[in-house]
Fold each of these.
Amino acid sequence: MVSPLVFAFLFSWAAVGLVAAEKSDFCLSEIVKSDERIRSHGYPAESHEVITEDGYELTLFRIPYSHKLKNQNERRPPVLLQHGLFSNSDCFLTSGPDNSLAYLLADAGYDVWLGNARGNIYSRANGQISLNSHKFWHFDWHEIGTIDVAAMIDYILEETDFPKVHYAGHSQGTTVYLVLLSERPEYNDKIATGHLLAPCAFFEHGTSFVFNALGPLVGTPGGIWNQLLVDTELIPHNNLVNRLVDNGCHLSESICKNAFVMFANGGYENANASSMLVLIETHPAGSSSNQGIHYLQLWESHEFRQYDWGTKKNIEIYGQELPPEYDLSKITAQTHSYSSHNDALCGPEDVDTLVSRFTHLTEDHRVPVQSFNHLDFIIAKNMKELINDPIIERINKYEGR
Ligand SMILES: *[C@@H]1O[C@H](CO)[C@@H](O)[C@H](O)[C@H]1NC(C)=O
């Protein structure tokens, strides 16, 4: 059970976030950015800008090679890592060179690219639309998949002159992969191997209190809450929100873990507390309310389908009353799923549904540790052995290494 205190904490966090969004007092120069973080560990780092067809300016960070291997002149197949909701490229870095996936891949001889979805702290500009306009926030993970990830993949292939890229995504980073490859199947040929950590597509059995608390309010289209919340920034990164979380975490580890309770069924046995503290420096990272609303719609409908605008607008946009489903049978790229028992958002039964619809899924891996939860895929003390090493092994196998 979730205590009322945690409820109060989370709601005030969200409320303060929504109010503070208007002020937008966040300043990028005050944080340690991914490229600086990478350099501080001795690795080379680059920052690239990708402009999407609809004007969003996305930042891709890159670890081009490993200073330990001095392999800058060798063949280095590219890998794209894509973060989850409320997150950014730092999520693949915060456990440091001995444990986080980005560094381990660089040390295994790969050219590592870290994506950032529109709306997060590293991708908050659009040449045509002001950040303070509702129009800027008129998107959800459908666009992140079909436009942002597609643009990042094309950019990487162009820059590196490779025909395919390896992909690993966490949480929403898996949703956008499924969306892209089912909606634009021609991108299957651009993927060497795909690795889905805590894959999120179906939410029928989601046990997180977030679903029960917010699902009925905003999960169905047309309601007042929906009207109020659509096209706004959701839990932005700003000084006020950040200070609340940061102080909470320094005050007590349990408050900190409770702030993340929505991702786990209560337990944080595997979490690396130091890594969590680093993570919080740049999280929550900013996203559109529509991303959250769209997920809640999936929880309500039990389907993996496009955003529900209500019957009238659906007919206008999609030519049918209900939003079209994502056809997972169109995904043919070699894809591995990694999921865990204690995931309160995308738990084992919903992964069963995903696997049953994902006809060409290569392998369905279930983490053998019962307490492993949704966030453990990026911050657990034991994620190297359980997740990251196996990913690299499979990528190596593909590359004949
Ligand atoms: C835990 O996180 C810290 C901070 O990034 C890192 O230095 C350490 O190596 C990590 N340990 C494990 C086992 O993940």
Amino acid sequence: MKNQKFKHPESLMMSHGYDPKLSEGAIKCPIFQTSTFVFDSAEAGKGFFEIAYGLREKGPTEEMGLIYSRLNNPDLEILENRLCLWDGADDCAVFESGMSAISTIMLEFLSPGDCVLYSNPLYGGSYHFIKNVLCRFGIEAIAFNAHEPENKINDIIEKHGAQDKVKMIYIETPANPTNQLVDIEACRKVADRFSKDDQRVLLAVDNTYMGPIWQHPLAHGADLVVYSATKYIGGHSDVIAGAVLGSAELMTRVKTLRTFLGNMAGPWTGWLLMRSLETLKVRMNEQAHNAEQIANYLQAHPKVKKVHYLGFLTEKDNPQNFAVYQRQLKSAGAMISFDIDGGEKECFRFLNSLKLIKLAVSLGSTESLAEHPSTMTHSDVTPEDKALYGISDSLVRLSIGVEHYEDLITDIGSALDAV
Ligand SMILES: *Cc1c(COP(=O)(O)O)cnc(C)c1O
């Protein structure tokens, strides 16, 4: 690799994997808006297919050529190479949505009779896929609550008699919307405990909330990391996309299924995400800086009962979460939720009074967003689970953007005055 001298991903986001000489000297990677690619010769075409279909190994100096945009396309390949740098992964596959990334790994690594263990609460779409789609294929699902420790998770597997059936542990941390943390290293230990010589229990982590800047699950023992690239990676609320990263061996399987499901991202999405990656770190760090100011403001406000912000974790109040936070996270992030003094009516008055902050779901974008989890993103969670996870009628979730924090505070302050 030419760039080995420069080791910080942010330095490489403008150049890694792209050679201007191959594109008329264009400083930026063009959009290869093409479905198919012309072979130099019939022999070359034959060779590409032999490798693509696994009929033989790639030779030591051989370069895999371009065939057809469902299999490979320069915008996707270069984007995937760049995404690998942040997580220190061997390989990456980009998808047309976060949900297609998530559903593809579950379909590839789970079979009828298997069981998936997941952390609760999960993103609503992932939960729905596990509960309503995987079960139709005879794949069982059992859950543990985000705050439960390793021995409790082991007990849950044994109590369900799933020792021989569990094939994947699927977690999301921090949990949405209350920022409860799941210990990735503890989950690795659980996965190892139930792995057999010929069957490794895979640990997959949805890192959408923190990645790829603030948390690196592969470094803590995860096998696969998945993203909704719609969120921080895209970062401008203008594209839907997803990504999966992991070892070469696992990613070959993921990419093969992607080829046959046909759910890869298109060249235009690839190009948009490459553009977004150039500013990923500056955006995310500014968002985290703004979030800290806003969390402090909310914490001191008389109409706010409780602020759920990772920066407020203390060893005294929550030693378990605090230890995970220190080991696993590089930042408190830019997601805040808080309980207003009141209920749904007060929350709606607040949300309807915001001017600069937009009332919308999604997260991780340049503009700040606000929503009411109980009636919006988490409206189909059962009342018991809502109570368990602290998703009350008084909870508001904020995704902090890159505006000036003083203006955000002015907006929040006026909206709270209206409550
Ligand atoms: C948005 C989101 C998803 C789903 O991603 P899409 O790009 O909307 O398909 C999955 N997980 C988390 C944590 C998310 O926030």
